[in-house]
Structures are given as C-alpha cells and as structure tokens.
Design goal:
Blueprint lengths: L4 H21 L8 E7 L4 H14 L3 E7 L2 H10 L4 E4 L5 H10 L2 E16 L8 E2 L1 H9 L8 H6 L11 E5 L4 H13 L1 H6 L16 E4 L1 H11 L3 E6 H6 L6 E3 L5 E2 L3 H9 L29 E9 L1 E2 L2 H15 L16 H11 L3 E2 L14 H20 L7
Helix pairs in contact: 1-14, 3-4, 12-13
C-alpha cells in the first residue's frame, strides 16, 4: 500500500471525523443511561407495565420507572418535583393547576382512554347484573343495603338475587378512579352531587356503617372484593378481567345497557375529541362520563400524563420526548389487548405537537441520549477504525505529517 503525503492526511482526517461522530452520536454506556421516574394512577398500571419493557427494548439507554401510588399521589409528586412525569385519571383541579404553574408550565397529555367497572362478588349468581347510575349511587349512599332490593330486582328480573347485605368497597387513597366514579355519580344523582360531589377521596356516609371497606389502589379494592362475598366495588376494567371478577353492565344516558369494551369506551370519548383545551391550559372541566352517544359506556375517562415543559437538562428533555412520543404512537398498539381504547389520530397529533415544546431550562450541549439504533453498528465502525490504524502503523513511510 503506497501513500502520498496528501492521501495520508486525507485518510487521517476522515478517521478523525468518524471518531468525532462516534463520540457525539453513539448511544451512551450504561453509566450514561437517562432515568425517568414517574408515579400515579393505578388505573393505567397494567398498560404502563407493558409499555415500559417494550420501550426499553428500543431505547436501551433510557430507564423508565413507574410507581402505582394513585392519581392523587402522582399529582402531589409532580407538583413537589419528585418525579419527571405523573399519570392521573383526573385532570388537575384549579388549586392543583395553580400550584403546578407556580413551579413551571405544566401539560396535560391524554394518553389512553379507559373504563372503570362496577365489580361484585355474589356467590352462585346465575347471570350478569345490570345496574344503573342511580342504583349505584343509592348503594354508596347507604339507601340500598341488600342485594334483593326492589330497585336491583327491577333491573334484573331474570336473576335470583340473594337476601344478603351489600358490602361496599371504595378506595382509601386519593384516586383518579374515585374521581371518575364520583364524577359519574354526580351526573346521575342530585343527592350525590349535593352531598359528596366529584372528588378523589370521600368518606362513607353514616348509613353504610360497618358494611364499608376502604382499600388502597385498584389492587387493594380488587383484593377486598375477592375476599368478601356479597361485596361491590369500582375498579379499572383490566383488574376485573385479569382476576375473573364479574362486573355489571350499565344503563347509559340513552337508556341502553352497555358493557365496557374498546368500542363503547371510544364512543364515550368521541364527542370530546375536537373540543379539548390546549395542553398547557386547565383541563379541570374535561369529562367523558355519562355521554349522550347511544353506544357510550358511561363510566369512561381519559388518563393523563402530567409533565413540565421546562426540564433541568437537555438529556432529560430529550428522553422525555422520546418516551412520551413513543407511548403516544407505538404504545397505542398495546391498548386494546389490555382493554383500553387507543387514542384517535386527532389526539395523537395534538400530543406530538405539544411534546415539541419540551425543552431544557439549562443551556447544555446535548448528548444524543435516545438513539434507537443498535450499539452493534457503532461497535462495528469502531472496529473498522482500529483496523485502519493498525494498517497505518504497519506502513513504512518517511512522510512528515
């Protein structure tokens, strides 16, 4: 191999350029992994548990951790700045929104559409229950206390209902699922709206007495229903299906009896698609419970990701963009198998536009932290450069450089 001084300089220049590209563009080593910490909704936990490993199979240099502590806990954590993102089945109320805005500009990103169901444990029941919002409200207000109450029998004339007391189960923690449930009951019961209203946490009315059980998280309520014959409780649909707990069909606003599935959940959200607020505005009044659509399942809700526009570093900002963009797009492919409704294209596009605005509050040189490409590519390039320099070293030349 004969090299002239000019060609040798060209080879070395090209090699140096390639080395520079590798140091700038290669995925970071394990010590350079960007960690994203999230917390909140137990309602979305089954889907989040599927999203995280699938995302990390593509972006191995982003570590995502999520704690299922309830929507209320997630909201407190994002306002306190102890997490990078939160998930909530309830939008921020006016006080929470103001407190969050004191820390920076915060976004609501609807990330999936889900449903809560009215689950029950009635041994040897010969059919699926039908319930209405009015009857559920009366059960939780203590006005209906036995399973063979005339109001329940009227909805289920072909089912033999037991003469047993109803054990009533609710969430003990601040919960978006509770918010959805109480929002729904506030729409269908004037007494509920006046005495309890829509809230993330509530106390049992005195009429419930010792028939009431409070448990933490969807997991806790699921366990309490399974352990207590003749109980009733509200849980996310996937928890009922995964634990083989029967749940009621509900009468919707149009008077139709509907089950919770991707079609009826999507129908509940359909009317809201084109009237949603800007991502940085208040979403306090957004609700899709008890919709007019004849197909709509009445106990449906968006689940939101809450995240600040300004991040402490470019790496954190880029990692959040990758993660939230992925669950907005690729992540929707996992929704239906876990009994959530995937986002429509209009909301996907709305989220993607909003995510472009995330940036770093500090001016730091960006590390390309989030490349989906295999490190094998970079390893092969590095090996090629090593061979190049070995060959250069073997040359016997006297040219000055």
């Amino acid at each position: 191999m004969n090299l002239t001084p000019d060609s040798l300089r060209n080879y070395i220049f090209i090699a140096l350029v390639i080395i520079t590209i590798i140091f700038i563009a290669r995925p970071p080593s394990s010590s350079e992994v960007v960690s994203l910490n999230g917390a909140g909704s137990s309602f979305i936990y089954p889907l989040m548990s599927t999203w995280i490993p699938n995302f990390q199979n593509v972006y191995r240099n982003i570590s995502v951790n999520y704690q299922s502590i309830g929507s209320g806990g997630g909201i407190r954590a994002i306002i306190d700045g102890t997490v990078d993102f939160a998930a909530s089945d309830a939008p921020l109320n006016s006080e929470e929104y103001t407190n969050a805005r004191d820390k920076g500009t915060i976004m609501h990103l609807p990330i999936t559409i889900g449903a809560a169901v009215i689950a029950y444990n009635i041994p040897k029941l010969d059919g699926r229950l039908i319930l209405s919002g009015e009857v559920v409200a009366k059960i939780y207000l203590g006005e209906i206390s036995r399973w063979n109450d005339p109001a329940i029998r009227k909805l289920n004339p072909k089912i033999s209902l037991p003469d047993k007391e109803i054990i009533v189960v609710k969430r003990s923690d601040g919960s978006g699922t509770t918010y959805m449930f109480t929002d729904y009951l506030s729409h269908v019961s004037d007494i509920w709206a006046k005495t309890i209203g829509k809230t993330k946490i509530f106390d049992f009315p005195t009429k419930i007495g010792d028939r009431g059980i409070a448990a933490k998280g969807n997991e806790g309520v699921t366990g309490a229903i399974l352990q207590n014959p003749y109980s009733i409780g509200y849980i996310e649909l996937t928890y009922a299906l995964q634990n083989n707990i029967p749940y009621a069909s509900l009468k919707n606003k149009a008077g139709n009896v509907v089950e919770a599935n991707s079609t009826t959940i999507s129908a509940a959200a359909r009317s809201a698609y084109n009237s949603l607020p800007d991502s940085t505005s208040s979403w306090e009044n957004v609700s899709i419970v008890n919709q007019d659509d004849p197909l709509a399942y009445p106990l449906s809700s968006f689940v939101y990701i809450l995240v600040y526009l300004n991040q402490p570093s470019v790496n954190k900002a880029n990692a959040l963009k990758r993660w939230l963009s992925w669950i907005t797009t690729n992540g929707q492919l996992f929704s239906e198998s876990l009994h959530y409704a995937p986002l429509p294209e209009s909301i996907i596009n709305k989220n993607l536009e909003a995510l472009k605005r995330i940036s770093a509050s500090k001016s730091l040189a960006p590390m390309v932290c989030c490349s989906p490409y295999s490190e094998n590519i970079f390893h092969s390039i590095e090996q090629g450069i090593s061979v190049f320099f070995i060959e250069i070293g073997r040359l016997n030349y006297d040219y000055p450089i």
